[in-house]
Amino acid sequence: MELSLQKKILENPKLYQHLKQNSGWIKILNRNPNAFKDFEEAMKEMYKERATDKMDEVLDNIDLISTFLNAMK
């Protein structure tokens, strides 16, 4: 694996954890360093860090608060 990829992975604890849990990515990244973008996307999907996941969480919180306020009436 290229040293620049290793450095990026080691600097980000979530990327490193994802690599440890899904070791098949080591072989993929060794053969094709350009797959790093796919690796990052897979990590974001696993840890729910995509923009859509964050929006869903905000909407769920708003719904919870509104339900709570309606129950208080």
How are the secondary structure elements laid out?
Layout: H1 3-11, H2 13-21, H3 24-31, H4 36-46, H5 51-72
Structure description:
10% of the residues are buried. This protein has helices spanning 3-11, 13-21, 24-31, 36-46, 51-72. It has 73 residues and is mostly helical.
What's the quick description here?
This protein is mainly alpha-helical and 73 residues long. The chain has helices at 3-11, 13-21, 24-31, 36-46, 51-72.
Principal-axes geometry comes out as rod-shaped
Alpha carbon gyration radius: 18 Å
Main beta sheet strand tally, sense and closure: none
Structural class: mainly alpha
The CA-CA distance between the termini, in Å, is 60 Å
Helix content: over 70%
Element string (H = helix, E = strand): HHHHH
Q: Ranges with pLDDT <50 over ≥5 residues?
A: none
Tally of DSSP β-strands: 0
Task: Output mean pLDDT.
Answer: 92
Can you count the helices?
5
Beta percentage is under 5%
Can you tag this structure with a few keywords?
73 residues; 5 helices; mainly alpha
